[in-house]
Specification:
146 residues, mainly alpha, 3-stranded parallel β-sheet, 3 strands
Length: 146
Amino acid sequence: EQKVRDRAAELGVLGRNFFLYSPMSKTDLVGAFQAASVSLSLFIDLPEMRHNSANKFFDSLASGRAVAINYGGWQAELIEQHRCGLCLDYDIPASARKLSQLLQNGELVAEMGRNSRRLAEDKFDRNKLASELRAVLEASHRPAAA
């Protein structure tokens, strides 16, 4: 953490457009995400990470913020289908340009944020998911019809 903090200070971005937060509760995390224009969920290039289910992705959606990821899989497909963020790659300069272009379009960033929130409510609401799980579990315990 200190190396990242020192490098960000050296580049003049610490506390300006790059922030490091102390550990916080899951409920406080949403507020931190809402302070961003776009949230990032980035991983090193490992095949195992290409199809993960990163919590940061869901936190971004719940916060109503556009999300940018650099891995493929079902989360990338959701971003493209619901137009709620960007799919970057491991070409850092190209990805930085893509992100910079998005940030220059405040209207698009806001639209993507609204799409993120809508997706969170439609597909990932905890109450809905719990009801669906309950229905599956109850159906699995019903005696088979004779």
